[in-house]
Amino acid sequence: MCGRGPMAPHRVVDELVNCMFRRLLVPLDSSPHARHALAEAIDLAKSNNARLTVMTVVPEPSAWATLGAIDAPINLRELNEQVEHAYQRILDAAVETVPQDLSVKTLLKHGAPGAAIVDEVTAHDHDLIIMGSRGRGELRSLLLGSVSRHVLHESPIPVLVVHVPGDQS
Ligand SMILES: Nc1ncnc2c1ncn2[C@@H]1O[C@H](COP(=O)(O)OP(=O)(O)O)[C@@H](O)[C@H]1O
Ligand SMILES: [Mg+2]
Q: I want to staple 21 with a disulfide (CB 3.0 to 4.6 A). Which of 67, 102, 128, 141 is the partner?
C-alpha cells in the first residue's frame, strides 16, 4: 500500500514499518553472523516487498599484508587479487541464497569496512542496515565487533544488529 488510500487504524503501524524499510543494505563478511543477518534481511524483504543490496568491503592491504612474520617473498599483486576474489565470492554466495523474485544488487568496496558502510548509506538511498553483531574477528568476549560498533555509532539511518540465537561464544 504505502500511502495509497485510506487505511484502517489498526493497520497504521504495520503500514508504517512496511513503508519505512523498502531498501535494505546488508554488509557481509564471511562469518555465520553475517549469513544470519542476510537470512533476516531476506525475510524482511519478502514481507515488505523491499530491495536488497549486499555489500562487502575488502580491507586495505595494510590490514592483512603485514600480518605476522612472513619469511617467503610474497607477490602483493597476486595476494591482492586472491583477497579480492574471496570477497567477491562472499557476494556471489549471498546472491545465491536470495529468492529469484527479490531484487538484489551487489557492491564491492575497498577501505575500512565501518567507514565504507557509513559512506555508502550517506551517499545513496538506503532505509535500513541489517548486519551481524560480530564477524570473523577472534575477540569472542565482545558483544559487538568493531565494524558493527562503528556503524551503530555513525550511521545516519537505522541499523538492525542481528545476534545469532544461542551463540555463547
Ligand atoms: N569487511 C566487511 N564488509 C562488509 N561488512 C562487514 C565486514 N566486516 C564485518 N562486516 C559486518 O559487520 C558485522 C560485525 O562484524 P565485525 O564488527 O567485524 O565483528 P568482529 O570484530 O567479530 O570481526 C558482520 O556480521 C558483518 O555484517
Ligand atoms: Mg570483523
A: 128
Does ligand 1 come within 6 angstroms of the Cβ of 28?
A: yes
Distances (CA, A) of 17 to 20, 99, 118, 154, 155: 5, 22, 22, 22, 19
Instruction: Answer yes or no: is 93 within a domain.
Output: yes
147 CA: nearest ligand 1 atom: 17
CATH number at residue 38: 3.40.50.620
The number of domains in the chain is: 1
Rounded to 10°, the helix 12-20/32-48 angle is 120
Taking the C-alpha atoms of residue 150 and residue 27, their distance in angstroms, rounded to an integer, is 13
State the residue range of the domain holding 65: 23-162
Q: Taking the model in full, what pTM does it have?
A: 0.89
**Ligand 1 centroid from CA 129, angstroms:** 12
Rounded distance between C-alpha atoms, residue 169 and residue 167, angstroms:
6
Q: Which numbered ligand comes closest to the C-alpha of 116?
A: 1
Please tell me if the CB atom of residue 29 comes closer than 6 angstroms to any atom of ligand 1.
yes
Residues 85-122 pLDDT 10s: 999 999 999 999 999 999 999 999 999 999 999 999 99
Question: Atom 8 in ligand 1: which residue has the minimum CA distance?
Answer: 29
Calculate how far, in angstroms, residue 104's C-alpha sits from the geometric centre of ligand 1.
Answer: 20
